Amino acid sequence: MLSLEERISIASWKQSGKTYKKVCQLYQRKYGKQPPTRNNIRLLANKFRRTGRMADEKRPGQPSISDDTVKRLYQNCS
C-alpha cells in the first residue's frame, strides 16, 4: 500500500505531464523501491484529477464493531 506522500508524488508527476516510464524512474530514485503498476499510477492520477484529493475516501456502509464492543456484548448475553 502506498503512503499518502507516495500518492501525492505520483499524482503531481503525472499532472506535470511525465510519462509512465519517467514516473517509475522518479519513484524508484525517491523511494528506493519498485514503483506501482501502470494501472495503479493511472488510477491515482485519475482520482486526483476527479477529486483533487489523494486521501482515501470514506467507504459507505455500517462501521465495524470494535473488539471491546464484541466482548461487552458477549458478557451481557452470558
Automatic annotation (TrEMBL):
Region (Disordered) location: 51-70
Pfam families reported in the protein's UniProt record: DUF4817
Domain of life: Eukaryota
Ranges where the DUF4817 domain occurs: 15-53
InterPro entries: DUF4817
Name of protein: DUF4817 domain-containing protein
Lineage: Eukaryota, Metazoa, Ecdysozoa, Arthropoda, Chelicerata
